[in-house]
Amino acid sequence: MENYTMSNPLQKLINRYLSDNGISRSDFAKQLGYTNVSKGLKRLDEFLVTLQSPNPDLPALILKHSDISKREFNLAYTAVAESINVELSKDFVPMIRVIPIYYPHPLWGMKHLNIKVPSNVLLLPYGEEIKVICDLYLNFRADVKFDVPENWASGAKGFRYHRKFDKTLVFDKSCKLLKNK
Questions:
Q1: Are 155 and 137 a contacting pair, CB within 8 Å?
Q2: What residues pair up with 164 in beta bridges, in sequence order?
Q3: Which residues pair with 179 in a beta bridge?
Q4: How large is the angle between the packed helices 9-21 and 37-50, nearest 10 degrees?
Q5: If you ran DSSP here, which 8-state letter would residue 121 be given?
Q6: pLDDT tens across 25-81, in order?
Q7: DSSP at 159
Q8: CA 133, CA 168: separation in Å to the nearest integer?
């Protein structure tokens, strides 16, 4: 039996199941349907840490091929999701993302849609904060030479202001608030 150090609740749950049942990680990857065991282990490990997988059925497959209860799995999954959100919220910085006329191909061009926001903007009173944000967007728009579809990044549709990790404001191109998510 292989011994792995597991750290998050989902990893611990899977490790305990494998250990209690004498199943190797390789055998479990095969049970999940992976013929390429190495690839299966990588995908399983990535899912257990990031909750992301190219196979959207992976959580159902884990439950199907183990005797882990759905409740226990969901509790561990939720704990990992909350931990991921805490980490993401620590790294969050406010930003403006222009709503393009259409999405470019290749998508790496999307980086041109982000407008940097001063780090101290959240310290301002709300009204002043929104004025600064609108000024940043309008300055961006002033630099755009034309508003035709060829210029997908013109910002002709408006912008999203990602104010806090879980708070997004959507404005039209005239800086009129449309949505407060």
A1: yes
A2: 167
A3: 170
A4: 140
A5: G
A6: 999 999 999 999 999 999 999 999 999 999 999 999 999 999 999 999 999 999 999
A7: E
A8: 13
